[in-house]
Design a protein that fits this description.
Layout lengths: L1 E2 L11 E2 L6 H13 L2 H4 L16 H17 L3 E7 L1 E2 L9 H8 L4 H11 L2 E3 L2 E2 L2 E2 L3 E3 L10 H8 L3 H6 L4 E5 L2 E8 L6 H18 L3 E2 L5 E5 L11 E3 L2 E3 L1 E2 L1 E4 L2 E4 L5 H7 L15 E3 L15 E2 L2 H4 L14 E2 L5 H6 L5 E8 L2 E12 L2 E9 L4 E7 L9 H8 L7 E4 L5 H9 L6 E9 L6 H5 L6 H10 L1 E4 L20 E7 L2 E7 L13 H7 L4 E6 L17 E8 L7 E9 L14 E3 L2 H18 L3 H29 L7 H7 L4 H18 L2 H6 L4 E3 L60 H14 L21 E7 L19 E2 L32 E7 L1
Parallel strand pairs: 12-15, 26-29, 26-30, 30-31
Antiparallel strand pairs: 1-2, 3-10, 3-12, 4-11, 5-8, 6-7, 9-10, 13-14, 16-17, 18-32, 19-20, 21-22, 21-25, 22-23, 22-34, 23-24, 25-36, 27-28, 28-29, 31-32, 32-33, 35-37
Length: 864
């Protein structure tokens, strides 16, 4: 019994029997073979059969076919090559039909009767491990390994040639390997029907002659007249479908559709083979272990925040391999959500809709503004120090600081209490905590997509590698991330490999665990899942190079090649290579030199980190970046429209449902809506109070002056609030524009304030403040929903209270947004003393816009 080196040793189909013949019998058959040599001398045998004939070889068959294909290409014609595969061809020769074939060639009488004992009365048995099986009679076939066997088989198939030629095909055979080829005009619409008719008649002839045509292994290769031509010759024969391949192995030579023989040249160079080779026409890069790779590798990438991941600084296993991500997508949740800040939306600027978030911060005595500006193309995140500014910029000016070429700025404050949840959802729409990766098994000598997806058995080395990736799980009723696999009806197999890594779920699409379809050479079920992945791991059990364009896929952009050495031992190591499309930026962690890992937790952490970072990097490629840009633009438009609609509803404008009006305070007109919005804001800040008492660290909040003018917004220090008249002070060019006599965003109360001052009751505030806010509106405001307290045409400055501590993150920070008027581009900034009436005698306090909130704050003066 003989076995091909690439077949599974545990399957009986991997072995083929060889007849052991006595020496005397071989000598006698050699004499007979020489006696019937007249068949060849008189051209009685098929002229297109090169098997076991003097002066003929596999080279004869290959040269004949290759030359015909080249001539066709030179004549601007397309060609098709079909390679027929017969199962156990020599073993299925019928003993009743063979004598008729010999008789048709002139072998009759006693010579014909001499062949009968050579074919009948034969038996076989298997000896293994000292045991011998029962003998079985052979009722069909000619002896493999005998002198006469190939000649008898060639005689048996002589009548096949005319059937092939009747359909316009040419052919050439080498023993049981049959090549059919046909040249045709590129626009010939009848080719598919011609192929189908020829294969149908061949299949019928095979059945009549008791030969087994294996349609699942029959190859079809189309050679286009020009590289731009594409053909879809899917031939249906019974329950089997034959589809074109990109390359096939024919008599030991690998053919490709352009007749470049590139895949064959790779394998014939001899070992040691590289793990990956660039395609002939480029389009990919290979990571060089000797090149220093700085991570993160692009301006849009950074390391994921360890506090967000809940990991130690050294990573999950302490090996230092870090995940890369777009940190800006998490910035709003980290710095704004639950903290005092303001949100604005801008309609139809030169960059389209814009959404801005502003937050005042003070840390270690340094004042700054944290800014996030969202456009349809990207989000800008900056922290601008206030020290040294001559004047505090307006909202449009802040936007120009981040993007100086934007025009047509007209910002409106967001008044919707739940805006923060909408904004954080938009920012994190590209944050991904679930991943699916393909796993492809490449055996020795496999250089085509069909061979890779045709692997149906798992060797111990491959199983060992899968255990490194994750756990083997049953798909039925699986509750975790399924990665597109069927967990109800078993249509994608019964099991797969799944794992969790750094609070992320990973499902692997393992080629050998996906359904295998007999007769489907492309294995579309497997290609459907792995071909739609973005990153795939390729396991190489033996040294065979991988070429990225072996697999035709619009989605696969990166491959991580893993080659096992000494599998199944205590010294198992894995050699790793990485390749990706040329528009994919490099990604970490960098490969060490040499790129060899011992089996263990470090290799697992490196591999999973590399796969996740690869997918994040692939999303920056041209194909996926365009998809993301379209998605982002649509989501930003939806966010802008929703913020505008909800803001209008909050102040009693716009059309809303009764339920929304009740929720947003829509009853009672503008004044009642405004009062209700203030109560919502007050309720949102209640949970911040205890934190602000306890946290003397970074202060949060935004000066209302950055709105460019509008309603005063004061944080309160005491339980009851009143207006505090600000004091004019000279501006210093060396100081922050918000610094006053009370100090630079002072940490201490102003000397004019009495800490023991008794504050008015809440009912007093309502009667005094609200009528003022109702009657006065800024003349420069174009937004009727933005009432202002100050009636002056210039923009006043107000005194705010600096709040310390951090707010409860569960609260919507948009409820603390500024209720300022629309800020237009080019608005001026001037200081003047605010006019107050009944509150000039009070030394501290603020307007009761916060309802019943009780927050200890400090005085801060800001410009509008």
């Amino acid at each position: 019994m003989l076995k091909k080196p690439t077949l599974n040793t545990s399957l009986t189909d991997s072995y083929r029997p060889v007849s052991l013949l006595p020496f005397i019998a071989k000598t006698l058959k050699r004499v007979v073979f020489n006696q019937i040599s007249f068949l060849s001398q008189n051209n009685k045998l098929d002229a297109n059969q090169s098997g076991f004939r003097s002066g003929h070889s596999t080279e004869t068959a290959l040269l004949s076919v290759t030359e015909a294909l080249r001539i066709s290409k030179a004549d601007s014609k397309s060609s098709v090559l079909i390679l027929l595969d017969l199962s156990a061809a020599f073993d299925t020769v019928n003993h009743q039909i063979l004598p008729s074939a010999l008789s048709s060639l002139g072998i009759t009488g006693i010579p014909l009767r001499w062949f009968e004992p050579c074919l009948t009365g034969r038996s076989f048995r298997v000896a293994w491990g000292g045991e011998v099986s029962i003998a079985h009679q052979l009722v069909t076939g000619v002896p493999q390994g005998s002198v006469l066997g190939p000649l008898l088989f060639s005689t048996y198939t002589t009548s096949l040639g005319p059937i092939i030629q009747a359909h316009g095909f040419s052919y050439h055979c080498y023993a049981d390997d049959t090549q059919l080829y046909l040249s045709f005009q590129p626009d010939d619409p009848t080719v598919a029907a011609q192929i189908s008719g020829c294969l149908g008649d061949i299949s019928a002839w095979m059945k009549d002659y008791h030969l087994q045509l294996n349609l699942a292994k029959t190859e079809l290769l189309v050679f286009p007249a020009t590289p731009t031509l594409q053909y879809d010759f899917s031939i249906q024969l019974g329950s089997s479908t034959i589809t074109p391949s990109t390359s096939v192995r024919n008599l030991g030579i690998t053919f490709d559709v352009q007749l470049t023989f590139k895949d064959h040249i790779i394998l014939e160079k001899g070992g040691p083979y590289p793990q990956v080779i660039l395609p002939q026409f480029g389009g990919y890069w290979i990571e060089d272990p000797e090149a220093a790779l700085g991570t993160p590798t692009s301006s849009d990438s950074s390391f994921c925040e360890e506090e967000d991941d809940g990991l130690s600084p050294g990573g999950e296993g302490g090996f230092g391999y870090r995940l890369e991500c777009n940190s800006i997508s998490r910035a709003y949740r980290k710095h704004f959500l639950g903290n005092e800040h303001m949100n604005y939306y801008c309609t139809a600027s030169s960059m389209g809709h814009l959404i801005m978030s502003l937050k005042y911060e003070e840390a270690d005595g340094q004042e700054s503004l944290r800014i996030m500006l969202r456009s349809k193309t990207k989000t800008l995140h900056e922290r601008i120090p206030l020290e040294g500014l001559l004047q505090l910029p307006s909202v449009p000016q802040i936007a120009k600081l981040l993007c100086d070429d934007v025009t047509g700025l007209k910002f409106n404050p967001v008044l919707y209490p739940r805006a923060s949840q909408l904004i954080v959802s938009f920012d994190e729409h590209e944050v991904n905590n679930t991943f699916k990766f393909g796993v492809i098994y490449q055996k020795f000598g496999q250089t085509t997509e069909e061979e890779l997806f045709g692997n149906n058995e798992e060797t111990p080395a491959f199983t060992e590698f899968l255990s490194v990736l994750g756990d083997n799980i049953e798909l039925q009723d699986f509750k975790g991330f399924r990665g597109g696999l069927d967990v109800s009806h078993g249509q994608t197999g019964s099991e797969s490999v799944y794992t969790t890594f750094r609070q992320r779920e990973i499902m692997f699409h393992v080629s050998t665990k996906l359904p295998f379809t007999d007769g489907d050479i492309q294995q579309l079920q497997r290609k459907r899942h792995i071909g739609n992945d973005i990153v795939a791991a390729v396991f190489q059990e033996e040294p065979t190079p991988f070429v990225p364009d072996m697999i035709a896929s619009n989605f696969l952009h990166a491959y991580v090649l893993v080659q096992a050495e000494n599998p199944g031992t205590d010294h198992t190591t894995y050699k790793v290579s990485v390749t990706a499309r040329e528009d994919v930026p490099p990604f970490g962690p960098p490969l060490p030199n040499p790129s060899v890992f011992k089996k263990g937790p470090e290799f697992r952490e490196f591999l999973l980190t590399k796969l996740i970072n690869a997918e994040n990097a692939c999303c920056k490629s041209d194909k996926f970046a365009k998809l993301e840009e379209r998605t982002r633009a649509a989501l930003l438009d939806n966010l802008h429209d929703e913020l505008h609609r909800q803001t209008q509803a909050t102040v009693g404008l716009g059309s809303t449902t009764d339920e929304e009006k009740l929720e947003n305070g829509g009853h009672g007109g503008l004044l009642e809506s405004f009062k209700r919005a203030m109560r919502v804001r007050s309720h949102s800040m209640e949970t911040m109070v205890t934190h602000k008492h306890k946290s003397p660290g970074v202060t949060a909040g935004v000066p209302s002056s950055v709105s460019g003018g509008g309603l005063q917004q004061n944080s309160v220090e005491c339980t009851k609030s009143t207006f505090t008249p600000p004091v004019l002070s000279a501006k210093s060019p060396l100081k922050s524009p918000v610094k006053r006599r009370s100090g630079l965003f002072p940490r201490l109360h102003s000397s004019t304030e009495s800490p023991t001052e008794k504050h008015p009751t809440r009912s007093d505030q309502k009667t005094e403040v609200l009528p003022q806010s109702q009657e006065v509106r800024s003349e420069t405001s174009s937004n009727p929903s933005s009432p202002e307290i100050c009636p002056n045409k210039e923009r006043p400055f107000v005194k705010l209270k600096e709040c310390s501590g951090r707010a409860n993150i569960s609260r919507s920070s948009s409820s603390t947004s500024s209720f300022s008027s629309t800020a237009g581009e080019g608005d001026g900034l001037e200081e003047l003393e605010m006019v107050t009436h009944t509150y000039t005698q009070r030394q501290k306090g603020s307007v009761d816009l916060l309802g019943n909130s009780r927050v200890h704050c400090k005085n801060i003066d800001f410009l509008f």
